[in-house]
Amino acid sequence: MEQRTSRLTVLIDPQKKAVFEHLCAKEDQTPSQVVRRLIREYIEARLGRPWQPGETPEDALRR
User: Fold this and answer.
1) Which end of the chain is more exposed for a tag (fewer CB within 10 A), N or C?
2) 4: pLDDT confidence band, cut at 50, 70 and 90?
């Protein structure tokens, strides 16, 4: 399992945040879970392969 020890601060408008939180709740997911999934999907789409937990940025970009 991935370690969740780093914080990412994102500034969005309050209305968009409220809609996002509502949609997350409807899916029984926390906003953090959804953001982590979106980030993982973004990384894997850009790398063109699955990302492995523990992989350093250098290792990920070298492959």
Assistant:
1) N
2) low
Rg (CA), the chain: 14
Amino acid at 59: D
CA atoms within 13 A on the CB side of 13: 2
Q: What are the distances in angstroms from CA 20 to CA 38, 39, 54?
A: 13, 15, 29
Question: What are 24-33's pLDDT values in tens digits?
Answer: 999 999 999 9
Supply φ then ψ for residue 9, to 5 degrees. Answer: -100, 125
Reported pTM: 0.81
What's the angle, vertex CA 22, arms to CA 25 and CA 28, rounded to 5? 10
Residues 14 and 25: their CA atoms lie apart, in Å, by 16
